[in-house]
Amino acid sequence: MRVIGHVAVNVFKESVRDRVLYNLVAFAALLIGASYLIGQLTAGQDVKIIKDLGLAAIATFGLLIAVFIGIGLVWNEVERRSIYSLLSKPIRRYEFILGKYAGLALTLLVNVAIMTAAFYAVLAYLATQFPGSGAVDPGLLRAVALIVLELLLVTAIALFFSTFSSPFLSAALTFGLWVIGHFNADLRNFEAVVQSPAAARLARGLYYVLPNFAAFDIKTQAVQALPVPGSYLVATALYGVVYIALLLAGAVMVFARRDFK
Amino acid sequence: MDAIRTEGLTKHYRVGFWRPRPYVALEGLTLEVRQGEVFGFLGPNGAGKTTTLKLLMQLIYPTSGHAEILGRPVGDAAVRRRVGYLPENPSFYDYLTAEELLEYVGALFGYGPSARRARAARLLDEVGIGAERRLHLRKFSKGMLQRVGIAQALVNDPEVIVFDEPMSGLDPLGRREIRELVLRLRDRGCTVFFSSHVLADAEALCSRVAIVAGGRLAAVGQLADLVAFQVRGWELVVAGLGPEAVERAKGAGLVMRATAVGDGRYALELPLSVAPERALAELTTGGARLVSLNPLRETLEDFFVRQVGAAPRDRGLD
Ligand SMILES: Nc1ncnc2c1ncn2[C@@H]1O[C@H](COP(=O)(O)OP(=O)(O)OP(=O)(O)O)[C@@H](O)[C@H]1O
Ligand SMILES: [Mg+2]
Fold first, then answer.
1. How much is the pTM?
2. Given this model, what pLDDT does residue B317 score?
3. pLDDT at B318 over 60
4. B146 touches chain A (CB under 8 A)
5. Residue B95 and residue A13: Cβ atoms within 8 Å?
6. Distance from chain centroid for Cα B280
7. Where residue B230 falls among pLDDT bands split at 50, 70, 90?
């Protein structure tokens, strides 16, 4: 446990020194610029655009961090041969993998926390401009929470691929899964549009196996202040955690067998 | 209990994309390194030295065979607390300073913040990294990285130290410093197992050596037993001798080989069967003056060349 923590802190240090946090500046600039424009243009009837934009930006910037750090996490360590001396220390291979994952999760959490704070700061500003618009809505945090979960899942996917394939391939596979995962629900309804029962069964199988990213997307409901049942949040969280656990187990299994030559 | 013990340790790599065939990187290595020994692991390029050391660190898994450190299988994570390893051409995290790297390693061993800071400082002093310790490792030269690599192997005061070419990339001063460091470690009771091409290092440091070639153990033993250190002839350097006189001495069987070394001097190799006094007497009557006379002994290099030359080469490829 202690070892995992040290590995995680080292990942965090690396990402800070690699200037990953600079994306936050871009995020803040984007948000502030947009809200300024909206304030000028729409005379305040649509704070919702800012909410949409803010949540989408958090999800997108988070996705970029998760993928671009995740794909290199294990690969770089092997390529740069720093793994040789590291694994000669009293650290088990699964601790290495979990530490790497925890480190990137920490990086993501810090990033999302700062982005969310900036987001709410902008909303608070808009609330002073347009009183009664309900700009500062704590309900948005539910959407942020599921974004975080989604990012943790993306990270686990990227890390899993990174234990055996090159960063380029890992990035392609991770983005591929992310895109498919957002249209996953369509696979379920595939049987309505195809003739062959085999194809329908395959589609249904894929629906169950591939990550269902669409489930994590409640941005619209949050922005429109539509109700999202607590049971839905719990079930989605459970789904995410189980999926992440399986991916990490897979990554550990692949990594534990590898020869570092 | 031995510090390191391997039994039939074997590693085959599969090479070839379409029809993978096993390639013998290491075959049936059985070796014991006793505690407190400085043990040299010698062999030409591609002999299987790095493969062996990686197997000991379980960075790769053996095809067959078994390895132990301090009586425990190498897979045992607990035994790594008592081991230090320097990889070949070490490379670390670019974004850390030397100090931070050593502190990170100290943290992995469970030392508290002040203990790891103290250890980092002491070890960097010991391997001769000065104020550069605050620079990021990406700015380090090869030799400096090698020194950091040695330092990080020693953070936990290991009982068993495994160095893969510790002298590689070091300047002459650095080599001497690391030699002295190895001897200090030995005096503290550590076992040092190191691979090297530099036979002079092995001669200076080791109590025992093993020679591998073509993935197989070619020889192992006490340096003094392997290399007889017996006189196998004499080298006589003389001045004031003409080329005809040299030819005559060769013809008479007094001299095996003659090399002109400039300034009208010759280095003459005498066979053991010729007493140097006799040869010298004959040559001085021909007008030669004695410059020096030295016994020729078999060196580790001679032995190495012989062993490696005789080693079988079949490694599975045509
Ligand atoms: N990943 C690999 N795939 C195939 N063959 C390999 C692999 N790694 C090493 N080998 C082969 O195994 C043999 C032993 O390599 P090893 O690195 O142990 O040599 P070495 O004795 O350390 O050599 P050097 O003195 O050059 O460092 C070499 O012939 C090498 O070609
Ligand atoms: Mg080597």
1. 0.86
2. 61
3. no
4. no
5. yes
6. 38
7. low
B15 touches chain A (CB under 8 A): no
**Strand runs labelled E in chain A:** none
Decide which of B292 and A198 is more confident: B292
The H-or-E segment that residue B72 falls in is strand B72-73
**Could you tell me the distance, in angstroms and rounded to a whole number, from the CA of residue B41 to the centre of ligand 1?**
15
Predicted local confidence at residue A102, as pLDDT:
96
Residues of B in contact with A2 (CB under 8 A): 110
Does residue B224 surpass a pLDDT of 80?
no
Residue B265 Cα to ligand 2 middle (Å): 41
Please report residues of A whose CB lies closer than 8 A to that of B70.
Answer: none
Look at residue A27 in the predicted model and tell me its pLDDT: 76
pLDDT beyond 90 at B124: yes
Predicted local confidence at residue A100, as pLDDT: 95
Span B243-264, mean pLDDT?
A: 83
Q: Residue B166: which region, alpha, beta or left (left: phi > 0; alpha: psi -120 to 50)?
A: alpha
Task: Quote the minimal CA–CA distance from A11 to chain B in Å.
Answer: 10
Q: How many CB atoms are closer than 10 A to CB B219? A: 19
Ligand 1 center to B215 CA (angstroms): 9
Mutate to test the interface with B, among A12, A80, A81, A89 (most CBs of B within 10 A): A89
Q: List, chain by chain if needed, residues with CB within 6 Å of any ligand 1 atom.
A: A 261; B 13, 15, 23, 25, 43, 45-51, 88
Cβ atoms B285, B238 nearer than 8 A: no
Q: CA B200, CA B211: separation in Å to the nearest integer?
A: 14
Whole-number Å distance between alpha carbons of A113 and B33: 54
B-chain residues near A14 (CB < 8 A)? 93, 95
Residues in a beta bridge with B196: B42
Q: How far is the CA of A236 from the centre of ligand 2 (A)?
A: 51
| pLDDT surpasses 80 at A129 | no
ipTM field = 0.86
> What domains can be seen in chain B, in order of their start residue?
4-226 (3.40.50.300), 233-296 (3.30.70.3100)
At residue B139 the predicted structure's pLDDT band, cuts being 50, 70 and 90, is very high
**A179/A213 Cα distance (integer angstroms):** 8
The domain limits of chain A are 2-182+217-257
> Which residue from A14, A89, A259 is facing B108, i.e. has the nearest CB?
A89
Nearest Cα to A137, choosing from A114, A162, A119?
A119
* pLDDT tier, B243 (very low <50, low <70, confident <90, very high otherwise): confident
Q: CB-CB: which of B93, B105, B149 is closest to A89?
A: B105
DSSP B211: E
